[in-house]
Amino acid sequence: MTERVVPEYTMQDGALPVTGLDELEAHLEELVNDPATPFNAKLFDDVELQLNESNIPPLLTTLLPPLTTILKQTTQDPTPLLSLAIKLLSPLNFSRCLTIADPPSLLAALRSPLPGANLLALAIIHKAARTPSDAAILSTVPDVLEEVVRRWLDSPDVGVGERAGRVLGDILETDCDVIVEGEGVNGVSATTNGILGNELVKRRVPGHARIWRLLFLDRQFITLITTLCRPETIDRQATLAQGRLLRILPRLTALNPRAVSTTPFPDILSLPDAAAEPAGHGLLQWAALTMVDTTDILMHLSLIDFFETFVSIMRVAGNSADKDKVVRDLVKTAADRDDQLKASLRGLPDRTVEEEAVPLARYISQILD
Questions:
Q1: What's the domain count of the chain?
Q2: pTM (2 decimals)?
Q3: Strands annotated E in 198-244
Q4: CA-derived radius of gyration, the chain
Q5: Whole-angstrom Cα distance, residue 272 to residue 290?
């Protein structure tokens, strides 16, 4: 009988070897030399599944440089490479990532016309959402933050726009210096669950609000947002930008209602007329009352969808006098000007889950009546 041979696995720094690593390195070299070479998605997945905090560190210098090079030049779907790159970066904090990709490199990747380069930069910048101190570090490079805003609102690639919005929302949540008291929660996560991909979550540690001050108290950032969302000629990209802004506003209002509903720049965030003044004056009111052309049927429906999401989230977003006033004044002003919106809000409880219907109907009545 032939003796069974058991392979011997050597240990290096306490970590098991990664099966397929040599093949992956050869494949990466091939992709660097010939970007048209098809990705071996299975090989990327097989290696990624074996990675952990123990075996990642020695692989960083081997795998990250070619992955970065390929992501910056490929026109193929970057998903398998991006997934592996994110896994390799997972043990690193934001400061450590900046030693691998400095701000000029991040700017170059964000400004690239290739989605893969954008997504890699966004994956690194997303690290700034881990702690308030990481978010504070990002605030020291406002040029990078500005490009994140551009990719969020101005990217024609849906994946890039959605990822940038998620990154920005998560960073603002970490950086928020307001903790709302009361039952329930005081933040809204962009993970895919709940209404329009909004899921309520709890925050415990206040941030430093440096990113908030840049976005809402810096004229350059407010001008950028309004210019991208409401250019002189409304085209497809402008409607995409409007939808992306509307999707993030319920989350930001739950986090810091005062920041989104007030502004030092009323000349930029103008209201449609004097009748809208009771709603308040900020980015929230501008987006909900001024930005959208309601004669465009699809955008009008998108705006109604926003208000339905808005009231559903605000009902469970914690107790706050600021928030309650902002919600009541904005929604009532909008509904008084739009009979279709008012009817949709009245009928919203009939279209929600049974256990939410009664409290939601009561909440909407308190706003509208």
A1: 1
A2: 0.86
A3: 199-201
A4: 24
A5: 6
